[in-house]
Design a protein that fits this description.
single chain; TIM Barrel; 2 domains; eight-stranded parallel β-barrel; elongated; binds pyridoxal-5'-phosphate; binds lysine; amino-acid biosynthesis
């Protein structure tokens, strides 16, 4: 994803059929600020440290693999988004990127709202103390139970995604005597420049109501037929994920405002809100160049303001739903090297003690990551290697092509940055491998947010 075609780089005469790394970095021990969280640094003797803690100590204490989450960075990113959008807009953190109760508390304290898309995410949000009114619920196939829980908990909005769901939700809200606020998920017909699995606004896909096909207008009519149980507050668009190019968001904003104008013309109502979703890309490697929240906020406010003026509409309240852009850069995964296998003339495989069960993104989206030797610094020559996991799958790749010091050996610690989003939340127990813990670090203190799974945890579910 977002991967440019890199020419193969030289390495000990190896043949590198599909190498993506370019030339070795000038300093293999350097921590590039684009991919590392803000408190990541090297200690005087060269080890990686974060939140004031040396990864060697963290590995001893919490084991590997482990996700280490920089709380200060997380909070700073929340504040940057809040400040950029200001009091006239709402920032909903997309819980799917990574959610646990501590994160919910941080979000609540930092003034963010929360987007959930399953009963489990809703339960975590409520259990972590997020006021229900600040929760938005998504999903293309919410169950009756999930809808009922959302309605009875008092969630601030439900984003409806199908005609069946509109009727289902109207019935549930009526049953509970609730007038539920809803937004309509519109498919705005944008081909977002990202991996096809995570683009969501082109016509041929499962989410939302098509604008061009007229389904979005029909969905508005369907919602407005239930004035006692549904209150239509706005239109929602999410064009995809890991996007760098602002033009897709601009087209989306223009089309969403166009729909608001059509609704005003047909029904005589001006809807008070629009949500332009999440999707802002982050740097997984130093080649990626993401936009900052204030640039995004400015661009979106300008386009919405301009389009509303042209359509003679009052500017609606704007909301956005960043997930990856908040949590992605705040964590890295710490692994221990188990084997280093040099296949002469082919490549070097470095096996770590995790893999596709803690980071499926490389296998699923062909995603790029970077990696550094974390337990020490090294002045050895760079070698081009592939960092792989321990699973019974040859596609079990963590970092496809990485320059690491050639004195790398079993027992060394490696750290893969930018794994805060969609790694723990998409982790699996493939090969009955227990999922790693999430450990928050701040000001020299570490705190387990999500503990490591144990074999007992796995066996507890096995009741046959
Ligand atoms: C509706 C919705 N909002 C927000 C997000 C968050 O996206 P990201 O983590 O790319 O910001 C997603 C996921 O793509 C989504 O489906
Ligand atoms: N899970 C995806 C993004 C999809 C987000 C949800 N719509 C990723 O890792 O990039």
């Amino acid at each position: 994803m977002s991967r440019s075609a890199h020419p193969a780089g030289p390495r000990h005469g190896d043949v590198l059929p599909e190498a993506h790394a370019t030339t070795p970095p000038a300093d293999l021990n350097a921590l590039d600020a684009r991919v590392w969280s803000r408190t990541a640094t090297r200690t005087a003797d060269g080890a990686l440290a974060v939140g004031g803690l040396d990864v060697r100590t963290l590995a001893d204490e919490y084991g590997t693999p482990a996700y280490l989450l920089d709380e200060e960075d997380f909070r700073a990113r929340c504040r940057a988004w809040r400040t950029a959008f200001g009091p006239g807009a709402d920032v909903f953190y997309a819980g799917k990127a990574f959610l646990c109760r501590a994160v919910v508390r941080w979000l609540t304290e930092e003034g963010l709202n929360l987007d959930v898309c399953s009963g489990g995410e809703l339960a975590t949000a409520l259990s972590g103390g997020m006021p229900a009114a600040r929760i938005a619920m998504h999903g293309n196939n919410k169950s009756r139970a999930e809808l009922a829980k959302a309605v009875t908990s008092g969630v601030g909005r439900i984003v409806v995604d199908s005609f069946q769901e509109i009727e289902r939700l109207a019935g549930i809200a009526a049953e509970h005597g609730v007038r539920q606020k809803v937004q309509i998920r519109a498919t705005v017909g944008v081909e977002a420049h990202t991996h096809e699995f995570i683009a969501t606004a082109h016509e041929d896909q499962k989410f939302g109501f098509s604008l061009t096909g007229g389904d979005a207008a029909e969905a508005v009519r369907a919602v407005l037929k239930h004035p006692e149980s549904l209150e239509l507050i706005g239109v929602h668009s999410h064009i995809g994920s890991q996007i760098f190019d602002m033009s897709g968001f601009e087209v989306s904003a223009r089309r969403v405002v166009g729909l608001l104008a059509d609704i005003r013309d047909e029904h005589g109502v001006e809807l008070p809100e629009i949500d332009l979703g999440g999707g802002l890309g982050i740097a997984y490697t130093p080649e990626d160049d993401p936009r900052e929240p204030h640039e995004i906020a400015k661009a979106l406010a300008e386009i919405v303001g301009r389009e509303c003026e042209a359509a003679n509409l009052a500017v609606p309240r704007l909301s956005v739903e960043p997930g990856r852009a908040i949590v992605g850069p705040t964590a890295f995964t710490l692994y221990e090297v188990g084997t280093v296998k040099q296949l002469d003339g082919i490549r070097t495989y470095v096996s770590v003690d995790g893999g596709m069960s803690d980071n499926i993104r490389t296998a699923l989206y062909d995603a790029d990551y970077s990696v550094v030797l974390a337990g020490r610094a090294s002045a050895a020559e760079p070698m081009l290697a592939r960092v792989v996991g321990k699973h019974c799958e040859s596609g079990d790749i963590v970092v496809r092509d990485a320059f690491l010091p050639s004195d790398l050996a079993p027992g060394d610690l490696l750290a893969v940055p930018a794994t805060g989003a969609y790694c723990r939340s998409m982790a699996s127990n493939y090969n009955q491998v227990p999922r790693p813990p999430v450990v928050a670090v701040k000001d020299g203190q570490a705190r387990v947010l999500v503990r490591r799974e144990t074999e007992e945890d796995l066996l507890r579910l096995d009741v046959g």
